[in-house]
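Structure in, sequence out. Go:
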């Protein structure tokens, strides 16, 4: 594992006899998803400023300008402080501006995955990957750029791990298939 693969918020397995857990994908929401809040804050601040300049609002109204700015900064910080990770063993989400909330689920517990896009996301080119766990919990990688690739990688990891649990080799299963086909032919006669 390289220094670039280390996460301060998630301990990766791999000490001792266990095989090292590796990061397969790492990302976060697109910063563009916070732009509407930034635009709203800018328009709000300009409207208050124009109202004061044209004497439609009292000078005291200038004290309200920081409030929309705080909302915009919070939206930007929320996007910057959200991270999604898929390892060869689990899925993890880190969120939080002031505090930290980390959610994880093992790939063996993932039952379903789906992708979705709303109209604006379709135009801009991002989407959401939803992950359903056996416990009933739902995880969402919201507003990620390569949502299709993330979904495919997650499915490959999830299905790849399940096929490793099957006993026997490919050759043994092919021999069993040939035997079953022979029985079927004999029964059809």
């Amino acid at each position: 594992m390289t220094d670039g693969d280390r996460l301060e918020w998630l301990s990766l397995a791999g000490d001792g006899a266990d095989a090292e857990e590796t990061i397969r994908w790492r990302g976060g929401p697109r910063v563009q998803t916070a732009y509407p809040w930034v635009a709203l804050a800018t328009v709000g601040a300009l409207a208050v400023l124009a109202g004061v300049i044209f004497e439609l609002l009292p000078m005291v109204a200038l004290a309200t300008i920081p409030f929309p700015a705080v909302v915009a900064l919070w939206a930007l910080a929320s996007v910057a402080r959200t991270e999604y990770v898929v390892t060869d063993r689990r899925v993890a989400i880190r969120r939080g501006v002031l505090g930290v909330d980390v959610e994880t689920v093992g790939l063996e517990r993932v039952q379903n995955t789906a992708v979705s896009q709303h109209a604006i996301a379709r135009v801009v080119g991002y989407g959401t990957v939803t992950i359903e766990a056996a416990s009933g919990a739902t995880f969402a990688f919201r507003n990620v750029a390569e949502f299709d690739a993330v979904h495919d990688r997650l499915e490959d990891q999830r299905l790849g791990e399940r096929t490793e649990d099957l006993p026997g080799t490919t050759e043994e299963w092919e021999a069993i298939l040939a035997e079953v086909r022979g029985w079927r032919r004999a029964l059809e006669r």
